[in-house]
Amino acid sequence: xxxxxxxxxxxxxxxxxxxxxxxxxxxxxxxxxxxxxxxxxxxxxxxxxxxxxxxxxxxxxxxxxxxxxxxxxxxxxxxxxxxxxxxxxxxxxxxxxxxxxxxxxxxxxxxxxxxxxxxxxxxxxxxxxxxxxxxxxxxxxxxxxxxxxxxxxxxxxxxxxxxxxxxxxxxxxxxxxxxxxxxxxxxxxxxxxxxxxxxxxxxxxxxxxxxxxxxxxxxxxxxxxxxxxxxxxxxxxxxxxxxxxxxxxxxxxxxxxxxxx
Length: 261
Ligand code: DGL
Prior knowledge:
By secondary structure, the protein is an alpha/beta fold. The protein has helices at about 10-20, 45-60, 70-85, 90-100, 115-120, 120-130, 145-150, 155-170, 185-195, 205-215, 220-225, 240-250, and strands at about 1-5, 25-30, 65, 90, 105-110, 135-140, 175-180, 200, 230-235, 255-260. It contains 12 helices and 10 strands. D-glutamic acid (DGL) binds near residues 10, 11 and 69.
């Protein structure tokens, strides 16, 4: 099975893209809702959670791990790779490569949680891929709770987004990276507030393509992943809003099984 984890249900945006791209592979998703949000926690804590989540997924049969959380991808990818002998994918590199390729002016905006923006990883990687780039970042700590709460069309959400996006708009970015798994759910509100001409980059599709390419180069692993085709969704807690948000992301109702990492 492909093991995927996130701090909550937002990472299901990545799971959905993988399901669409690789429908014949088994999938085991873990949303760590008991310990969400990750984005306001220290790097050491996020690393511990990432290791525990990966262990749970591997013990339940994951043969490959996708860290579908920007905050964990930013600070915990190296430690997960060191401690587990399975291929590990993260969500930052695919978004960075796409943004560096697509931006015409080199003025690239990135929005994310405090952990992601504070890690400096997007700034560093974008400049590594495109040395002439000017990177403008904005931490948006209020957005994740709004999405988890289902406030995807509320006036308050629009006002907060306007405040967060105004500095990036002033800097005239032509590309905006959604550096958090929850933000694709606000894309319809982000686009008009950042500007219709700004290209929005969401790593889910690019990551799914990259994974599919990797598996076509690793047919033995691909065949093992195809041996088990079920899709299971685990959560470490089951708060009331979770099922509705999961259904909105996946486009169908799924059973959320409670586990403890
Ligand atoms: N999934 C996290 C991310 O992509 C956002 C939610 C959180 O802060 O836990 O950064």
